[in-house]
Amino acid sequence: MSDILVIKELHAGYGEGDILKGIDITLPAGRVVTIIGPNGSGKSTLLKTLAGLLLARRGDIVLKEQSLRDLSPPRRVRAGLSYVPQEYNIFRNLTVLENLKIAREFMADRKMRGGTAISDELIELFPELPGKFKARAGNLSGGQRQMLAFACALTVHPEVLMLDEPSAGLSPKYMTDIFDTVKKVNARGVSVLMVEQNAIEALRISDTCVVMANGHVRLTALANQVLEMKDLHSLYLGDAKEEAVAS
Amino acid sequence: MLQTAFNGLVTGIIVTLPALAVTLLFGVLKFPNFAVGSMMTLAAYLVFALNVQLGWPLVISTAVVAVAFGGLLIAIDYVTFKPLRERGSITLMVASLGLGFVLENIARLAYGNTARSFAIELARPFRFLDIRMNREQMITIVVSTLAMLAMYFLLTRMPIGRAMRAVADNPALALVRGIESPRIIRWTWFIAGMLLAVGGVLIGMDRALEPPMGSSYLVAVFAAAILGGLGSPLGAFIGALVIGIVSELATLVIPPNYRIGIPLCVIALILIFRPQGLFGQPYIRK
Ligand SMILES: Nc1ncnc2c1ncn2[C@@H]1O[C@H](COP(=O)(O)OP(=O)(O)O)[C@@H](O)[C@H]1O
Ligand SMILES: [Mg+2]
């Protein structure tokens, strides 16, 4: 199995001092890797750095043998890496349809130049969206916004999809829908790197679980092994390493 | 009364183009560009050079300068604002004040303080529904309306316009959606440059060319843009109309010398009661 995304010794931060203090994560092609960990441990910072919004101070990000380190965010999208941020992940003042279109309009030099943003495949995954095309995206419900953000990230046919807490703040119905959709997208060959708080639901559809704490990777394990651990919550308490060794 | 209102409408509508430029620049770059007045002055003098000194027709001179001025603003951005982009809007605003001062004095240095005018033949005013209207006023109304419609079309129907709205809405998201924001910023300056060049010519036709010609409209331009709601082309147009009519009608009850106070009052009232303007979207700070 080849690795589609390799994160090596990654350091990044906002001001003085690093938030990410040497992160190593590998995403095998076609798999789902879920990152869990306490609030403030640097999960969102990691995805921002991978997307190119934050400078990688040390280390490397390799997508299909190509280093992304010096690429701008738009170029990383073109290289096949798509990202759904945790917050502010839609253009509120644009309509739903405009949100979907815009994600592809500037991809001219990539293979999916032809065709439309809204493929049958996309409508199949997000049946709620077509009825809302003309609505201002800012007027959608929380669940619909999340679906829209997800759909926008797919319009560019990424090879790796990064999702930052896609189920945060959603009703149980939307939460199930979101994870179902992640699973379907993955079944179509897209590798997924996801950050989630709803660990149990997320790990059910994941292959690998990565636990982050305080800017470090505390544990990397098979998702179903982690699901079987007696006290999943102790993973969040920062002594995950000892816990894992013990089990 | 009707004639006064009409005159007000035209004096107001004349700031539509710069108000559109202000609205567009503010939306994408998030700072109030106070150099727009002097930018109009400079563009008007460039048109003067082609039209009067080289003898080209005014329309052709304006078209050539509009395109060149768009390019010039990209270059100006590159040396003045771009290096400061990370420093926040206050720094950029102060830089724009300085830039305005420099540009106005470049015009002064080249052409002095004497008032000049474009080479156009005089046309007789005509009457329409009891209102006296001259050709310059007609041109102002037509050009401003067309510019507003063109901006609306650009922002809603064209990919580059949609991308401008996306960058205005959420710059970080625009980047991760594959939009090269530096390119969008260049387009924004280019379009603003064309609007300001044509706006400068309209003002030069209405009054005369002198170094402070553009900056004297600054308050009205910002009042129109803020009243309409920064970011909305229709808002800039309606805002310009309202400011013009209100200022002109106000001279019926207050001394004309205080006219300049009207747009200032409008700015204050809008900022207190409806900061997003008539047509703008509330701006949420992230
Ligand atoms: N824009 C920012 N500027 C400065 N510090 C930030 C910023 N965003 C997050 N941080 C800090 O970085 C740390 C990690 O945050 P984050 O990556 O959002 O954590 P998580 O997603 O795991 O909850 C926190 O201490 C947070 O305060
Ligand atoms: Mg987070």
Walk me through the structure:
- The complex is a heterodimer of chains A (247) and B (286).
- Chain A has 247 residues and is an alpha/beta fold.
- Chain A has nine helices and ten strands.
- Residues 237-247 of chain A have low confidence and may be disordered.
- Chain B is built from twelve helices and two strands.
- Chain B has a two-stranded antiparallel sheet with strand order 1-2.
- In chain B, β1 (126-128) and β2 form a beta hairpin.
- The longest helix of chain B has 26 residues, at 181-206.
- Chain B is globular.
- The model of chain B has no long low-confidence stretch (mean pLDDT 89).
- Residues 43-44, 86, 164-165 of chain A line the site of magnesium ion.
- The site of adenosine-5'-diphosphate (ADP) has 10 residues of chain A, from α1.
The main sheet of chain B orders its strands as 1-2
> What's the Cα radius of gyration of chain B?
18 Å
How far apart the termini of chain B lie comes to: 47 Å
Structural class of chain B: mainly alpha
C-alpha end-to-end distance of chain A: 27 Å
Could you tell me the mean pLDDT of chain B? 89
Helix/strand-derived category of chain A reads: alpha/beta
Q: What low-confidence regions of chain B span 5 or more consecutive residues with pLDDT below 50? A: none
Q: If you compute it from the alpha carbons, what radius of gyration of chain A comes out, rounded to the nearest whole angstrom? A: 18 Å
User: Which two chains have the most extensive interface, and how many residues on each?
Assistant: A-B, 28 and 19 residues
The largest pleated sheet of chain B is described as: 2 strands, antiparallel
Instruction: Give the SSE order of chain B as H and E letters.
Output: HHHHHEEHHHHHHH
Residue fraction in strands of chain A: 15-25%
Helix content, binned percent of chain A: 25-40%
How are strands sequenced across the largest beta sheet of chain A?
6-7-8-3-9-10
Q: In one word, what is the shape of chain A? A: globular
Number of strand elements of chain A: 10
